[in-house]
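User: quick one, fold this
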Amino acid sequence: MKHRTKPRPAQQPIYTFQVEALSHEGRGIAHYGTHPDHPSDKQGKKVFISYALPGETVKAQITNVVKRLEEADSIVLQPVLNRNVHILPCVAAVICSTFSKMSKFA
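Assistant:
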């Protein structure tokens, strides 16, 4: 007997999450909890959120749903105070040299 899949809405829902940890892939990990907009049938379910860091509050749109977890993309982010974007000098040198070589051929 084949299992019937549940029809998914065309527009996936947006929820607010508190990011708790970071996965080995670099995505934020959160769980459905007691937030008022979280569905009660998903309590404790794990959510992997792209571009989110531990300690951040994120509004995220669900992109993939499986039985044990969900994946989401962050939409609105309340960053932690120490979140900075750094480019290491060695990386900046490689980027600059690559673009200077490319401009010679353009």
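User: anything notable?
Assistant: The mean pLDDT is 79.
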